[in-house]
């Protein structure tokens, strides 16, 4: 491992030339709760510090460099030109204690309002009650009136005007490019860029959008066509400027699975998503040949893997082999040398919260040994490390990953 830089290790792994790389916090589904983070820092024997809460919805801490060093992690994260963990930016972070629950730092304390019962409100409709460790929206942010005979549709002309406003100005392009350059110069780790996405998913909620996919595919295609057009325009604006400084692009977060199966039938996903993803990925790879395209899709999506590969993604996350009845060996065998797997290192719903330290260590070791064969595996748990997870378990799973990577 000492013969390569950390960036080389990641890129060789994603190119199936190295068995394992290791991540914590590269993107918003490979991170750690800000409530668990101070305990991990203490358990690692590192100086105490206030966690930087960069995702105030999921309440995720931005891992510090000394924590990445202690766990032998190979990736730093950058969020457009707003934040990174490649270097310190104290001027961007302000103290906030979440109503006395957690001394921390955030980028804008003004978005929070504490209630008398201890609930904290964020952006009017997000709330974290005293017994919770994350913010929630009513109905999970996806309300659905089952008595509605006709689901409301978006006005395509209004949507086009909204998308037009998301195009970058020359000043934004310069700022983002300069920021990414500073990140590249500050570290030998691979740079994971968050903020240049494709925009496909379940608009307006999984329930209503799924019904549109089945009942009105032409409408879905019109929406996806608009998003594809504007995503490609944004790719053309920004990718040539930042490609020398980034390694992985967080291309889309599109949770297509439940605990048991894909949400959409595979043939529907194949018709309504794959052609648009492929067009966007083709442009990404043309403009930035060295940058890897990353798809996050939770749930039992084993039956969609062929379509994900056909869509042109280089990396699939979170590798939720615990859902759908297909184990990690089946996932690896289907993906081997075709698409890299990022995550899946520990079952974050059962083993990590309910198992012993030894059980976490053993499962992580077993998974790393198999998923790391023939390369193409970046270690992380199946999803974020939640607030209740003891630091000893976190250290155990990263120890297993380090040993497998030797």
Descriptive report:
- By secondary structure, the chain is of the alpha/beta class.
- It has one domain: TIM Barrel (Alpha-Beta Barrel).
- Helix content is 38%, strand content 15%.
- The protein has 14 helices and 18 strands.
- A nine-stranded mixed β-sheet has the order 1-18-17-16-15-14-13-5-6, sandwiched between helices. A four-stranded antiparallel β-sheet has the order 9-10-11-12, with no helix packed on it.
- A hairpin with a 4-residue loop joins strand 3 and strand 4.
- Helix 2 crosses helix 14 and helix 13 packs parallel to helix 14.
- The longest helix is centred in the middle third of the chain and has 26 residues.
- The chain is globular and about 55 Å long.
- It starts with 5 loop residues before the first helix and ends with a helix.
- The model has no long low-confidence stretch (mean pLDDT 96).
What is the secondary structure topology, with strand pairs?
Layout: H1 6-14, E1 20-22, E2 32-33, H2 37-43, E3 53-55, E4 60-61, H3 65-71, E5 75-79, E6 83-84, E7 94-96, E8 104-106, E9 112-114, E10 120-122, E11 126-128, E12 136-137, H4 156-165, H5 170-186, E13 190-194, H6 206-215, H7 217-242, E14 248-253, H8 266-272, H9 274-287, E15 292-296, H10 305-310, E16 315-317, H11 328-335, E17 340-342, H12 351-354, H13 357-371, E18 377-379, H14 391-405
Helix pairs in contact: 2-14, 4-7, 5-7, 7-9, 13-14
């Amino acid at each position: 491992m000492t013969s390569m830089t950390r960036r080389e290790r990641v890129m060789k792994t994603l190119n199936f030339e190295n068995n394992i790389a290791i991540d914590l916090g590269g993107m918003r589904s490979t991170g750690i709760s800000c409530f668990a983070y101070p305990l991990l820092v203490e358990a690692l024997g590192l100086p105490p510090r206030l966690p930087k809460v960069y995702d105030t919805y999921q309440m995720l801490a931005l891992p510090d460099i000394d924590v990445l060093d202690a766990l032998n992690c190979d990736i730093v994260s950058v969020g457009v030109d707003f934040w990174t963990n490649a270097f310190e930016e104290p001027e961007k972070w302000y103290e906030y204690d979440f109503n006395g629950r957690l001394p921390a730092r955030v980028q804008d304390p003004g978005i929070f309002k504490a209630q008398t019962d201890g609930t904290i409100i964020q952006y009017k409709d997000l709330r974290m009650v005293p017994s919770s460790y994350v913010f929630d929206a009513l109905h999970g942010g996806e309300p659905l009136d089952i008595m509605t005979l006709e689901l409301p549709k978006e006005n395509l002309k209004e949507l086009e005007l909204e998308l037009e406003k998301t195009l970058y100005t020359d000043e934004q392009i310069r700022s983002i490019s300069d920021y990414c350059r500073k990140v590249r110069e500050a570290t030998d780790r691979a740079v994971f860029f968050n903020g240049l996405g494709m925009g496909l998913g379940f608009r307006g909620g999984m329930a209503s959008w799924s019904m549109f996919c089945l009942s009105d595919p032409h409408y879905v295609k019109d929406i996806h066509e608009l998003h594809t057009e504007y995503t490609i325009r944004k790719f053309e604006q920004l990718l040539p400027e930042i490609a020398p400084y980034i390694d992985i692009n967080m291309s889309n977060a599109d949770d297509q699975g439940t605990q048991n199966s894909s949400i959409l039938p595979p043939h529907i996903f194949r018709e309504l998503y794959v052609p648009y993803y492929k067009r966007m990925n083709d442009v990404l790879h043309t403009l930035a040949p060295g940058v890897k395209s990353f798809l996050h899709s939770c749930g039992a999506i084993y039956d969609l893997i062929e379509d994900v590969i056909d869509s042109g993604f280089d990396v699939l996350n979170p590798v939720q082999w615990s859902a759908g009845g297909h184990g990690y060996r089946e996932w690896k065998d289907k993906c081997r040398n075709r698409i890299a797997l990022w995550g899946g290192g520990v079952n974050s719903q059962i083993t990590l919260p309910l198992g012993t330290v030894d059980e976490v260590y053993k499962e992580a070791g077993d998974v790393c040994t198999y998923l790391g064969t023939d390369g193409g595996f970046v270690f992380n748990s199946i999803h974020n490390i939640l607030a209740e997870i003891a630091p000893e378990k976190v250290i155990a799973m990263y120890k297993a990953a380090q040993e497998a990577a030797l």
